[in-house]
Amino acid sequence: MDILDYSVIAIYLITLLAIGFSLRGQQSKKDYFLAGRSLSWKPLLLSIMATQLSAVSFISAPAFVGFREGGGLIWLSYELAVPLAMLLLATIVLPTLYRSGVVSIYDYLERRFSTSTRIFISIVFQFSRAFATGIMVYALSIILQGTMQVSATQAILLIGVITVLYSLQGGMKAVVYGDAVQMVVIVVGTAICIAFGLNALGGWDVFMQLLPGERVSTINFSSLGLDGDGFGFFPMVLGGVILYASYYGCDQSEAQRALSAKTEGDLKKMMLANGIFRFPITLLYCLAGLVIGTLAFNDADLLSQIPKDNPDWLMPVFILNYLPHGLIGLLVVAILAAAMSSLSSAINSLAAVSLEDYFKLTGKQDKSEGYLRSAKFAGLIWGVIILLLSLNAGDIAPTVIEAVNKVGSVFFGPVLAVFLLGILTRKVDSKHVNFALLCGVATNLTFAFFVEDVFWFWWNVTGFLGTVLSAVIFSKLVPNSEVNAINTNQEYKGNVFKSNVLKDKTIAVLLVSYFCLLVVFCYLLPGWLQ
What we know:
Layout: H1 3-22, H2 29-34, H3 41-57, H4 60-66, H5 82-100, H6 105-112, H7 115-148, H8 152-201, H9 204-210, H10 233-250, H11 252-259, H12 264-297, H13 300-304, H14 314-322, H15 327-362, H16 368-391, H17 398-424, H18 430-450, H19 458-477, E1 492-493, E2 496-497, H20 505-529
Antiparallel strand pairs: 1-2
């Protein structure tokens, strides 16, 4: 890297700080944590995609698809369930949370069930999100260490200090608009890598001739994920629907964006667009992996610079060797953006949840001026905690990063089940759901420790079913007391909101049709590439 690259990085960081400081002036907690419910679906879409896709995908997805042993386009099977998950969220879960007027989605659980339900799930979110974000920042700091010629500590502090400053000053607006900028940078950076990779190979035709055949397999219909084999079609779709629905709708870091929408219509447009546009972005990452991985296998010098035990170096090594100065800086900015997007979202959402919990448990009044000071202080504390986790993560192996995702799958199913039980039933009360939540988690822990051949994506299904069935059975055995009712300004009839049925039919048709289209596309793709 030279002065031109560092200048590009400096301009980017200054731009983020300018965004944060220009969006100051919040008057209430909803201004700070929900942007005053003033955001349209377009910036929210870019923000939600940046947080979910960028942190791992810009580095790990291309490495898995194009270089990692056993990898390939099978990565696309992760994406098949997204449209169906967005359908569930856009029609049932998120509109209900939006109408309830909450800042913390876990506040809904207290209103519907009890304080104990809220606190348990809130604590799970806070610890898991802080730990996972800390590991993510550390992992990307190692990549930055090699590209920017700085220490891992310096990289972590660079990411952390800038992100904390702009997210604390601007609140949710700064997070969303910062994420939108970062998403554009990441997509442009990925496209640049593809173009330079194809040029180095000699063009598309040469790439197609050299592309390893084992890399183009996309859908595995033969495996049920019950014999230790991963990436089977059925666990990826069934487990994926629950995983993504829980992550996007029952995790504060993602759901907070939906609560920031200007209208319920903007919320639904955001989820519909995410269900449609997420796959093309992932396909772009995968193409980058195929192109650059094929180049690495045919360039001994490039191959020798990638550590055998860490294929995630594929993209950074390519960037340093094949891109001109200036573009190197832009691609380093893309790596920074990958970390900053997830970190800013984590800080803002953790501050929202912990502060709402604090005021609820202590009974103190959340007056606007004092609340905003407390919000920024809470964000600062969480920023420091995450950075400390990152700085002390040096002994954590890559397998532990995968373990973080597995730990999430222990809870994704049960947590989604609790929200759906609250929304769709009136016969389940707090004692039923608390018992059922423990049963669902216990079911998944049993699979995790004693049934190791079951692919961990199935845990999302087993935890969900274990929680729902336990709650239903327990509610029959021990009839409920008076259930907390939440006014969402909707006519409730049976198990659906009557006013939503016709309104959401178009969304349902589009997303189900798109899911079918993705399955057909992925099934045919290997034939087109061979």
